From TrEMBL:
Record-level Gene Ontology MF annotations: cysteine-S-conjugate beta-lyase activity
Coiled coil spans: none
Catalysed reactions, semicolon-separated: L,L-cystathionine + H2O = L-homocysteine + pyruvate + NH4(+); an S-substituted L-cysteine + H2O = a thiol + pyruvate + NH4(+)
Name this polypeptide is given: Cystathionine beta-lyase
Keyword flag Lyase: yes
Top-level lineage group: Bacteria
Native source organism of the sequence: Benzoatithermus flavus
Length: 387
């Protein structure tokens, strides 16, 4: 079954719900069992057991995402960061060593450098472009290699198969933040990933009204991760799972539009005199383009660009007057966003150096002619204010 079909079918069993097309929302804490045998046979990781472990609404979403990503089973929790932190806690103990890409999502870095360090877990950050040479950094106590491709601010594409091969040869697990591409445009388990994490807040939700993280695992990794996650987190709320399922059904159509519009906007930005460079792996000439073409099935609406040096007053003149591009710390919704970023403040293995102003842009579902007109007016304001 192709993804465009699977995204509409996975996790749906109308015959179990009186023919209802969408899985109903089950609100539950207590679950009643008809007999003592049924009570004693029940397991929290198999079927409905207690509300903290999920309801049929939860399981429908988890099944759908696991099928789309190509994993065995998935776990839905309250946010993308919760998915990351709970997964790492399930895999690591005092004395272990963790390798994390230098381009990682900043809250992931903070958790590793602060919380994990307090628990006696050492984190080393590595060049996101290291590929198979990561073998040189793997120690006897290295238990996890954490990847994120592309990086959420600088958009380097990692050689996930090479990293996975090197990690597995030394007994380490590979965890990947797959939020940028979603389950449709990168298949982590085909490329050697053991555990895939995504913020369903972004493209799966798709409407900027949902907080959720989803962890998808191989069969070998699932029980360990599930038990660890359940120790420190609870599954996502049933209403949120319903919204995520609703968003999932249109993911293929939305993501295709995000991709097409973002590439059009990125190509337009490349031609503007105010722009020093565009960071989009789907564009020919981007340093990550060859790996993106080899491993990815598409691109999302998020990318970066660098403005030529300008005073803050000029940047404010540009951003404060935008009509369609909002300023906010998320992405993946139907609306377009534009913010300045500071990757130089959260790199340690490979310093990020640029003379200009790094920007992160999310291209939503608006008409690209209107978006480009808004950007053009903004860049004109910047140029006038900088003069």
């Amino acid at each position: 079954m192709n993804d465009a079909t699977l995204v509409t079918m996975a996790g749906r069993e109308p015959e179990r719900h009186a023919g209802v097309v969408n899985p109903p929302v089950y609100h539950a804490s207590t679950i009643l069992f008809p007999t003592l045998d049924a009570l004693e046979a029940a397991r929290p990781d198999r079927g409905v057991y207690y509300g903290r472990y999920g309801t049929p609404t939860t399981f429908a979403l988890e099944e759908a995402v696991a099928r789309l990503e190509g994993g065995d089973r998935a776990i839905a929790v309250g946010s993308g960061k919760t998915a990351i932190t709970a997964t790492l806690l399930s895999l690591l103990k005092s004395g272990d060593h963790l390798l994390v890409t230098d381009s990682v999502y900043a809250p992931t870095r903070h958790f590793c450098s602060a919380t994990l360090a307090r628990f006696g877990i050492e984190t080393s950050y590595y060049d996101p472009l290291i590929g198979g040479r990561i073998a040189e950094l793997i120690r006897p106590n290295t238990k996890v290699v954490f990847t994120e491709s592309p990086g959420s601010l600088t958009f380097e594409v990692q050689d996930i198969p090479a990293i996975a091969e090197a990690a597995h040869a030394r007994g380490a697990l590979v965890v990947m933040d797959n939020t940028w591409a979603s389950p449709l445009y990168f298949k982590p388990f085909r490329h050697g990933v053991d555990i895939s994490i995504q913020a369903a807040t972004k493209y799966i939700g798709g409407h900027s009204d949902l907080m959720m993280g989803i962890v998808t695992c191989t069969e070998a990794a699932y029980e360990r991760v599930w038990r660890g996650v359940m120790e420190v987190a609870t599954v996502a709320a049933p209403d949120d799972c319903y919204l995520a399922l609703r968003g999932l059904r249109t993911l293929s159509a939305r993501l295709e539009r995000h991709q097409r519009s973002a590439i059009e906007v990125a190509e337009w930005l490349r031609g503007r005199p105010e722009i020093a460079g565009v960071l989009h792996p789907a564009l020919p000439g981007d340093p990550g383009h060859a790996l993106w073409r080899r491993d990815f099935l598409g691109a999302s609406g998020l990318f970066g660009f660098v403005l030529k040096p300008c005073p803050r007053t000029a940047l404010a003149a540009m951003l404060d007057g935008m009509e369609l591009f909002g300023m906010g710390y998320s992405w993946g919704g139907y609306e377009s966003l534009l913010i300045p970023t500071h990757p130089e403040t959260c790199r340690t293995a490979v310093p990020w150096r640029t003379d200009g102003v790094p920007m992160r842009i999310h291209v939503g579902l608006e008409d690209t002619k209107d978006l480009i007109a808004d950007l053009e007016a903004g860049l004109n304001r910047l140029r006038r204010a900088a003069a």
